[in-house]
């Protein structure tokens, strides 16, 4: 197309210069014929020939100027294509729906994209990571931030392939959950069967903040692994076989939440499987049996230095007595305790009773409860702690209606200040068809003055 335009401009330049050349050729013969032989002919010819040379040079200059301007204009213009002419019938036959082009991605900062990806699930992150290199680079950290291993085979395969290749991504893992199948009680267990997995897990040591381990025989290097987790904040162990713990860790992590449930030692009666003493700065503790588990009441337990603000004592499987909970509670430093939750599952089904005397004897260790404000417990514990502390503001009582009234009476007599009391009596579906325990009672009462319940509403108990 450009070549055709250039030829056209060249032809125009030649046509522009041609008339002047013809006029000069015709003018010169007229002058020579009419004059005849003359002595001045040579002089006239000498005058005409220089003008002829100047005119030719002028024409050449004009042509070059025109060609130069045309070339400059041609180089500055953008190429275009000739539009195709279609008849209306052809347009109707060949018409296609308009193409939906994606809107350009806004140029958001990388930090904003990373915050968005933190709220996406794993499937969404996997789809986003394959769209482009930019999203792959910034979504990879969010994709590996929460790991879940449900079998030792998967854990070993993951550690030996992905994490060998991308060790620099270990800092991006903030949560690791290990859910293996617990061993049978009659099964012979090799305690170090998972030692290689915990050894390879050191790649996560700088970024790991939450660790959940379930159904695992912890190897001997487990506490060494814990000692190398400076960022760990939440530790949750369930149904694990625990090796003997050291007296202390060199650099214990600053835990905020510690949950130890249904732990077993390798040798029953030799040491405790509950190692609360290793974390002196933990603020939220949830345990079931406590350090004196499996009827090892005379077992020597290291001194617990932590002063938690919230303690949850779960149900001991083979222990119904509330004295067990009080013995466990007395091992902690209680001067910072604000919330205490005691769960007794035996009160959810017949015979709905605890085999403890009511009221219970005073416990000298409970005099430290100066900041206790929220209490969820059976009536025996509520009555005991109502006499040991003076700051209760919210109380939830779990028991039968008769014992609830006894505990409510104690709270009403002891406290003159307003106390919010939640009365709870829960039974299972099977127990509703047995005898007089047919209805479930859940009452919320506000004690405005001693012994005076002014407002009662029904509300289900969220256990």
From TrEMBL:
Positions of region (Disordered): 82-104
Stretches with biased composition (Polar residues): 82-92
Entry keyword annotation includes Signal: yes
Keywords tagged on the record: Membrane, Signal, Transmembrane, Transmembrane helix
The protein's name: F-box domain-containing protein
Signal peptide: 1-17
Pfam family, any one: F-box-like
Residues in F-box domain copies: 102-152
Organism of origin: Mycena chlorophos (Agaric fungus)
Membrane-spanning residues: 399-417
Keyword tRNA processing attributed: no
SUPFAM superfamilies xref list: F-box domain, RNI-like
InterPro entries: F-box-like_dom_sf, F-box_dom, LRR_dom_sf
